[in-house]
Write a structure and sequence with these properties.
seven-stranded mixed sheet; 4 helices; alpha+beta
């Protein structure tokens, strides 16, 4: 690079709908990250199904992370949130959740729920910052090691059904 020239800036990260063509990169992230990774067919079957919101963080065609969400009855269930390890702690997961809340906001009466490993302090702290509260424990929830899951809710939680 000639002296005095700056390298071109990296493309911005865009949060957008997941497309079928994104699935190979999503599966690669999932396989590198999860102890019990989803298969390609699991992602494809969720993608675009009515009642889902599936987002990716895209930087110039490189998928850096994804979130998969399905609506069951009156609840949005966050099935999967994942960011490539090299791109964690850059706010990408938080941005994907913000876009998710905005897109799901048309149905504001619906709450969000998820399960998270009790050992995943980073994710638990992110969810707390995004308004999730702990509402119980699922003992032995994770099949790979029997780890417990914390059940978290953001709005529309079980207490809302009785108010």
């Amino acid at each position: 690079m000639p002296r005095g020239k700056r390298p071109p800036p990296e493309p911005r990260v865009k949060i957008r709908e997941m497309r079928l063509g994104d699935v190979p990169q999503v599966v690669a992230i999932e396989t590198a990250t999860s102890a019990t990774p989803w298969t390609r067919s699991m992602f494809v079957s969720e993608l675009g199904r009515p009642g889902t919101i599936d987002l990716v963080a895209d930087r110039g065609g490189d998928i850096l992370g994804y979130v998969m969400v399905s609506r069951y009855a009156d609840v949005w269930h966050i099935l999967n949130v994942c960011v490539r390890e090299a791109h964690r702690r850059q706010g990408i997961a938080g941005r994907m959740l913000d876009v998710l809340f905005e897109r799901a906001g048309r149905r504001a009466h619906l709450g969000f729920t998820l399960e998270v490993r009790v050992s995943n302090g980073t994710a638990i702290n992110l969810y707390r910052r995004k308004g999730f509260m702990e509402h119980g424990l699922r003992p032995g929830y994770y099949s790979d090691n029997g780890e417990d899951a914390i059940i978290m809710w953001r709005g529309g939680g079980p207490e809302d059904a009785y108010t």
